[in-house]
Structure formats: structure tokens, C-alpha cells
Amino acid sequence: xxxxxxxxxxxxxxxxxxxxxDAEAYVRAHIEFLAHTYEPIAGAAFGDARRAEFDQRxxxxxxxxxxTTSADAAGREPFRRHLIARDSRGDVMGVASAGLxxxxxxxxxxxxxxxxxxxDVVLSHLYTAxxxxxxxxxxxxxxxxxxxxxxAYLWVYDENRRAVRFYxxxxxxxxxxxxxxxxxxxxxxxxRMHRL
Length: 196
Known about the structure:
alpha+beta
């Protein structure tokens, strides 16, 4: 995927597919975006727990990048495609990931309550630096991750009202499956949303 220029008022970003060279910066930014978003909800230990996952997240991302490269070469859709948004200085301002298949934690965590989503496409994550909120970067990342308003599903913390409103504006609604986020994610209520 070639870099896509994005020029909201007074800001300039590019969005591109993540490469192996981007992996460390992507994971560091993703972890810090997670900490900034969820520490107020899940507590200060949340960020420390995510930072402790750095090496594991790097390894997982490298596996995803290799699979995406292989899928692209074979002309098939990859399991997960990761996108990185950078500002004009090259600093990471946003990250996103979407692809085919349920998240690996879903069925084991939810047990008998789990049911298959209405679509096989999942938006695994989308985060932007807080100072970019309102610039259109989040919308551009969503549109790049799910082009053409592609049907998809996602999970969102119920208390993350900004995210819930953002996804509702983009046609996502709750599909009836709710859970807690699990102990390592603060055991907070979350809901699955989908767009058909």
C-alpha cells in the first residue's frame, strides 16, 4: 500500500502500510496510545502491563508483516494489515489494524456467550495521538483500514465515550455481545459493535 497524503486544516499526515523498519516505532506508539487512553479507566498499572509486552508485540507484528507480504504477493487478503500515520517530521501520530477472522482472545474469554460476528472482518485497533483528535486523522485511518465503508466489527470499552461516538458516526452499532475486558485490561465493560 502506497502512502496516502492526508491534509486536514493546518496539519499534514501520511498513512502507509507498516514495514519491518516501522515495527519498533509502531509498537512503542501503540503502547503509549493505549496507556493514555485506558490508564484513566483501568488504572496506572495498565500502561506498565502493556509496556512489559513490548517484545511479544514486536514479534507478533513481525509475523503479521511477513504474512501480509506473502498474502499480497499471492493476491489474497492478509490476515491483518497494519497502518501507520506519521506527521511531516516522521513522528508516529496514529496506528490501525484490520483484517480477517476473529480476535484470538474472543472465544476463549467469552466461552459459551460468544457467537460469530456478522462479518469476518475485524478492526483490531485504531488509536491516534490525543493532540490530533479533531484533525480528521482518526477518520482517515478508519477509511484506510476499512475502505469503502467496508462491513466490519470491533470491540470498544463502554466508558470510552469518544470512541463509541466516533464509531457510531461511522455506522457501527452494538450487536448485543458484551463482556468485561479481562483482568489484565482492568476488567472494564466492553461491547462488540458492527457495521453491515
